[in-house]
Amino acid sequence: MHAPQKPRYDDPLDVETFARPEQQRRYIAAMNRIAAHRGSDTPVRVYVSASPKTVNDSNWQRWLKRITEDLPEGVELLHYRSAFEEGSYDWDTLADQLDGLVVIGRPKRLGSRVHVLGPVARLELRSLVAKKPVLLFTHNLGLVPAIDCRSQVMPPSDAPRLKLIAPKRWNRGSATLHAALDALRPTGITSQEPEQPRDLEAHLAAPFVVGAR
C-alpha cells in the first residue's frame, strides 16, 4: 500500500481567513460594541465604492440588488451617484455620516478571489477600515469582511491601488461576517443567524496598516 503523497507546495490562499486569531477577536468585539451602542430608530447608511466603469456596467443594478439582499434589512445603500451632486465629491464629510462601506474591485478574472481597488476606493477604505465595518463584494462569495482578506499595495506610487485577496476556504458562516452584519443591523431588526460567542477582547483590530489620525 502506497503512502499518501505530500503536496509539492503549500497554497498560501488555502485558508479560512488571513487575520490572526487576536485580530478576529478584537474585530468582533469592536463590531459588537457598535451594535450595542446603536440608538433606537437610528438609520444605517452603507456606501458602495465602485469605479465609474463598474457603475456604468449593465450589471450595476443587479449587483446593488445583491448587496442589498446580503446586508441586513433596512440598511440605506448609497453610492457616488446618489450621495454626491455632480462634481461635488466630498468624502470626508460623507464618511462621518456612514456606518459601513462595501468596496467593489476589479476581479483578476471571472470567479477570481483577487480584486483590485483603484486609488479613490483605496483611500475610502483606509479612512473607514479601522473603525467601521468594511466589506469586499465578490461575485462568487458575496460580502467578505476586509479583515479576512490579504492586502497588497500596488503601483503607481503617486496613485497606489490596493489588491484584496479573499481566502480560498472563507465561508458565509464566518464569525467576522456575522459580527459585521450585526453592526450594520438597524435597531429593532433581529438577526436570523445563531448568536456568536461573546468571549472577546475589547480592542479594534485594523486589518491594514493605517496611519495615525
Q: What's a quick, concise take on this entry?
A:
Helices cover 28% and strands 17% of the residues.
The structural class is: alpha/beta
Largest sheet: 5 strands, mixed
Q: Given the C-alpha coordinates, what overall shape results?
A: globular
Strand content: 15-25%
Provide the residue-averaged pLDDT: 85
Strand order across the biggest sheet?
2-1-3-6-7
Fraction of residues in H or I helices: 25-40%
* Unreliable spans: 1-8, 191-213
Please tally the helical runs, counting DSSP H or I stretches of 4 or more residues. 7
State the order of secondary-structure elements, H for helix, E for strand.
Answer: HEHHEHHEEEHEEEEH
| Total DSSP E strands | 9
Terminal Cα separation, in Å?
Answer: 62 Å
Whole-angstrom Rg: 18 Å
Which key terms come to mind for this protein?
disordered N terminus, 213 residues, 28% helix, single chain, four-stranded antiparallel beta sheet, 9 strands, alpha/beta, five-stranded mixed beta sheet, 7 helices
Provide structural commentary.
The model is unreliable at 1-8 and 191-213 (pLDDT under 50). Helix 1 runs parallel beside helix 7. The strands form 2 sheets. This protein has a 5-stranded mixed beta sheet with strand order 2-1-3-6-7, with helices on both faces. It has 7 helices and 9 strands; from the N terminus they run H-E-H-H-E-H-H-E-E-E-H-E-E-E-E-H. The longest helix is centred in the first third of the chain and has 16 residues, at 21-36. It is α/β, with parallel strands linked by helices. The protein has helices at 21-36, 52-55, 60-70, 80-83, 91-95, 119-128, 175-183, and strands at 45-49, 76-78, 100-103, 106-107, 114-117, 134-138, 142-145, 150-154, 161-165. Helix content is 28%, strand content 17%.
